[in-house]
Amino acid sequence: MKLLLPIFLFLTILTSCQDIPINTPYPNLEFDQVIAYKMKGMEGKVIENGKLSNNVDKQNQILDSLQVKKLLSIMNKKSTYGGVPASCFEPHLGFVFYDTAKNIVAHSTICLACNSMSTTPKIEEFAFSKKGANRILELENELFRK
Questions:
Q1: Residues 120/106, Cβ–Cβ less than 8 Å
Q2: pLDDT tens column, 49-86
Q3: Are 19 and 74 in contact (CB under 8 A)?
Q4: Which residue has the higher pLDDT, 24 or 120?
Q5: In this structure, are residues 75 and 123 in contact, taking their beta carbons and an 8 Å threshold?
Q6: What span, in angstroms and rounded, lies between the C-alpha atoms of 61 and 42?
C-alpha cells in the first residue's frame, strides 16, 4: 500500500509533463515558408547534399500559416515523442523550411512505418509516441487529401 502513493505521484507528474515544450524549439531558425514533400518510401532524407533528394515524389504542398503553426506545435511538444523506433528508415514525408531567398534553413524527414524522424538541425527527440504519429498523420492527410 505504501508503494501505491509514490507510483501515483510519479504517474501524475509524468502525465502532466506530456505537453510541455521540448528544450530547444525546432527549427530555432528564421524561415519564411514550409513545403511538405511526399517521398517514395526509400531510404534517405528529404534533403541530401543540400538539395531535394531523388527520393522526393512530385507531390508537394506549401503549408499555410495555420498548418505551419500546427506542424511546429506537433514537433515541439514532449507528448509527440517517447515511442520506440524500428530499425528501418524508409520515409514517405518530408518538410523543408526555406528563408526569404528560398535557401534551405531546416528540414525534417518522417517515416511513420518505423515511427521516427530525422531533422536538420537535430532535435533531441526522434521516435514518435502514438499520439505524435497520429498528429503527423492527420496533418499529412490534411495536406495531401485529394
A1: yes
A2: 999 999 999 899 999 999 999 999 999 999 999 998 88
A3: no
A4: 120
A5: yes
A6: 20
Q: What residue type is 74 in one-letter code?
A: I
Q: Write down the residue that cell numbers 527549427 correspond to.
A: 27
Q: Which three cell numbers stand for residue 12?
A: 501524475
Report the amino acid identity of residue 126: F
Q: How far is CA 138 from CA 14, 54, 57, 131, in A?
A: 25, 25, 20, 11
Which cell numbers in the block locate residue 121? 538541425
Cβ-Cβ contacts under 8 Å for 106 (sequence gap 6 or more): 26, 27, 29, 31, 96, 97, 119, 120, 121
C-alpha cell at 7: 507510483
* Amino acid in position 117: M
Q: DSSP 3-state assignment of 63?
A: coil
User: What is the residue whose three cell numbers read 505504501?
Assistant: 2
pTM, to two decimals: 0.83
Helix (H) or strand (E) holding 104: strand 104-111
Q: Amino acid identity, residue 12?
A: T
Nearest-angstrom CA–CA distance, 146 and 144: 6
> Residue 8: what are its φ and ψ, rounded to 5°?
-60, -45
Cβ burial of 95 (10 Å; 0-12, 13-18, 19+) is buried
